[in-house]
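user: Here is a favour to ask of a fellow structure person. I have my own habits and do not want them to colour yours. Could you put it straight underneath, so I can go through it closely?

assistant:
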Amino acid sequence: MFIQTESTPNPATLKFLPGQSVLEMGTADFPTADAAGGSPLAQRLFGVDGVTGVFFGTDFVTVTKAEAIEWDHIKPALLGAIMEHYQSGQPVMGEDHKASSGHADHDGEDGEIVGQIKELLDSRVRPAVAQDGGDITFHGFDRGVVYLHMQGACAGCPSSTLTLKMGIENLLRHYIPEVTEVRPVA
């Protein structure tokens, strides 16, 4: 098994490409070790000292490290953990995992606008940020303001504010006049 790695715009995050499917569809975010209970692979990665976050896409694993830790020190252990997991035959996610779009549900009078926002995120934004090892999902819409949740390499990325304001906000405002602003949700 040959696992490729790619740097991301976030220096604290590295993208691992195991060369096979990670998730059938959707994404899975584990911002803490406590959140990793539903995933044998995430638990194994959090077992490496210095790991502070794990994120899965359809064909990649993104790992975020503590600031004081150097990639040269933990990268071999992470590669080993991923390889051991795939050789063990265990599933990436536990049986209770249900794939979802990642977007928050929205009930109310703005349903049509929210549908357009989600469609633009799915078709234009999410494929681009997946290239960088992250994901951006819809969290809410209130009086012209779109709230988005940033995951994986996007969470805590120094360039994420610029991506939100100059990229996503401009895109949504261009196609959906009702959108006035885009804000991140912690």
The chain has four helices and eight strands. Strands lie at 4-7, 13-17, 28-30, 51-56, 61-65, 134-142, 145-152, 181-185.
